[in-house]
Amino acid sequence: MPQATLGCCAFNFDVNRVPASLRQIPNVISTIRILLVAPIAVALAHHQWRIATALFGIAALSDAADGFLAKRYGWRSELGAVLDPAADKLLLATVFVTLAFLNLVPLWLVAAAVARDVIIVLGALIYRYSLGPLSIRPSLVSKLNTLCQAVFIMAVVGRVQFSVPPAPLVMVLGALVFVTVAVSGIDYVLIYGRRALGLARPRAPARAGDRRP
Fold it and tell me: pTM higher than 0.70, yes or no?
């Protein structure tokens, strides 16, 4: 049981006794991140770089916050399992498309990033309705891809507003985004494929010696 200390006094904090409403905090934070998508896109479209950077930073911090609360206190839910990744994908895809519209990001890179998300979502939907529920935690390369996209976006906006980082570094970050997009997309396809093959294989018949009377 987690214990908190304040001065010379100590008290116990039982996460199992937390009101149900507080357990929804990660979902509320994910919802706020979704609501920030439109203001960020508008700020970018109007070249309000400082506002866009600040809002995007808040969105990134909210992603870390809801993840921390869900893992630290076990405040996980089926709704959260949908909201959190949906908020991330919607935010990154919207920002990428907006930056491409402003000719700040190559169209091919945006197409690759969006195509990866479409493949993941469609694959999950097809699997669910064809074979049943699917529970997949983000892989390490998928988390790395999300981080690379966020850093690349901040670098692109920083380059426009403050002339930093240098252009070669932005290009390297863009290349890293493309590589992680490709690798994580292939990884998800392989995961779906392995899960589908595992369900499709008929169970091996029990051996005679293993049969119980």
Answer: yes
